[in-house]
Amino acid sequence: MDPNSKKQQFQSGKSLSQIDIILEEKINFNLDNILDDDDQNDKLSFSILDENDNESFTHDFPLKYQRREERNFTNQVHNKESILKSLKLPNLEPELNVNANPYFKRQDKKYNTITPNNYPMGSYNMFQGYGFPNYNQSLNYNQNKGSQYGSSFYGNSNGHFVSGNNSMSTNETGHGMFGQGMFTSYPNNNNNNTNNNSYNSYDSQHQFCIGSSSPRNIPRKMVTINELNELFFNPDGECDISHSMCSLNLNPKEENTSFSNSFQSQNQKINEQPTSLFKKQMQEHSLMNNMINANNISNANNVTNSMNNSPDKSVSTTTIRNSHRTSYDQIVRQEIEDILENELNVTEVITEQIFNQFKGYFFRILNTQNGSRILQKCLKLSPVDILSRIFHEVT
Amino acid sequence: MYELMNDSYANYFCKCFYLALDKEDRVKFLCYLRPFGTIIATGKVGTYPLQFIIENIQSDEERYIIIDTFKNEVLKLSYVN
To answer: How far apart are the first and last CA of chain A?
Structure first.
């Protein structure tokens, strides 16, 4: 068969989705035939046409090279993945190699703690998983796929974190979790070294801000690197995002004080804070609210009980974290009960505002005697669209 | 919904909730309960809101879902203590 006709057949304009069929049915045959040709300068052109018959992708196989490697290439022809690799086709669904980054490998406890020497600059989207994806195209991936939580840092090929513009210096800060700087790094002003390798080490005095930087009414906390370790890693050396819950309970007036020493006082101050602050927190961090599930509550309650029984109140990091979670949940529960009793019980209408306040908590409210009774009363007068939203939430 | 139907407090809410929903959501409501129909029907709590729902079926679609849920389960349900 004429190689040119095969070549034309190759260029017959298959869509990208049909490439598997092309590879399986056409490429083997075509390559074998063309490889028999004596023309050393011939090329096998591969093209993919879009709907308008424009070439969306082209690639030329230099046959001279193929002859040199004929044996290997022929073997590769039968391997679809190899063909795809050699074609350098656009990676439509990139795999995230979460284990490639050495800093957060769960199996290797050596890297499971943040130390002043290995903690890189910037802010981190902890929702990316236990390891940040070591993925060279991750910036595009992040933009295209739309990371819900804002900018974040990724590992480069060396396993180091790099920033979005690949040029973070020690004088820059970044934003990460929840898109508003849940976990923001502030440079140490005494350290004027600028590292162009997109990787900066921190000393033990370097301070990180935990908590949202915007809006301003959400409290923040400055912590050192060791305190950060305690926050985000459990005693087994595993990164645990749920520990970040305590960031919501940080008192803005407590900035620049020792984090671990202020835990107990914070617990007291949280209870003294006006409940309206937590109303706002509930609305603005509904995502975070959803993270509190029934298991967390029961665990936290158990921990609180053990805290109350301990005479010296010296508790482990995990205990402290859970106690924060408990405090937060207790306040939220109190808040919900107040709204139920004082607003819903009187008006008997579930408004948009109340729905937003209760969002994420309906299931638990319905499991209580009072909550179920009051919500039941409100069904008659509440708008149907609100009821529909409640239905979608509880299902 | 299955858990709410079997909850000692939430089951009262479920009864009223079903009536308050519009037609489309009511069908979805039954679809969510469909895999758990037998369990709810034999439960000490869930059976009462289920009876209420069956009594208050308003459309053919809802009726069809209920029939389809229990059409092969009648014998099994009749033997449950």
So the answer is: 62
Q: A115 vs A137, which has greater pLDDT?
A: A115
Q: Do A363 and A393 meet the contact criterion of CB atoms below 8 Å apart?
A: yes
What is the spatial distance between Cα A276 and Cα A389, in angstroms, rounded to a whole number?
A: 24
How far apart, in whole angstroms, are the C-alpha atoms of residue A58 and residue A47? 4
Report how far residue A388's alpha carbon sits from residue B6's, in angstroms, rounded to the nearest whole number. Answer: 21
A207 beta partners: A186, A224
Q: Residue A31's CB: how many other CB atoms inside 10 A? A: 22
Q: At residue B25, does pLDDT exceed 80? A: yes
pLDDT of residue A289: 45
Residues near A333 by beta carbon (within 8 Å), at least 6 away in sequence: none
Quick check: B21 and A380 CB within 8 A?
A: no
The per-residue DSSP string of B25-56 comes to HHHHHHHHHGGGHHHHHHSTTTHHHHHHHHHT
H helical segments located in A189-310: 225-232, 263-272, 275-284, 286-291, 294-309
Q: Which residues, in sequence order, are CB contacts of A206 under 8 Å at separation 6+? A: A116, A119, A185, A186, A187, A188, A191, A224, A225
pLDDT in tens, A63-90: 544 444 444 444 444 455 555 555 544 4
DSSP letter at B9 equals T
Give the separation between CA A273 and CA A253, rounded to whole angstroms: 12
- Distance, in angstroms, between A303 CA and closest chain B CA? 27
Closest by CA to A301, choosing from A268, A333, A259, is: A333
Contacts of B13 in chain A (CB under 8 A): 366, 372, 375-376, 379
CB proximity A366 to B under 8 Å: yes
Q: B37 vs A44, A358, B52, B59, B73, CA distance in Å?
A: 62, 29, 14, 19, 9
Q: Does A375 touch chain B (CB under 8 A)?
A: yes
Rounded-to-integer distance, Cα A44 and Cα A164, Å: 38
Q: Select from A363, A379, A381 the residue whose CB has the most chain B CBs within 10 Å, as the one to mutate to test that interface.
A: A379
Query: At residue B20, does pLDDT exceed 50?
Result: yes
CA distance A379 to A242: 34
Cα–Cα nearest to B33, from A391, A295, A370: A391
pLDDT at res. B21:
87
| Residue A131, burial from CB neighbour count under 10 angstroms (0-12, 13-18, 19+) | buried
When mean pLDDT is compared over A106-120, A169-183, B15-29, the highest value belongs to B15-29
Are A133 and A108 a contacting pair, CB within 8 Å? no
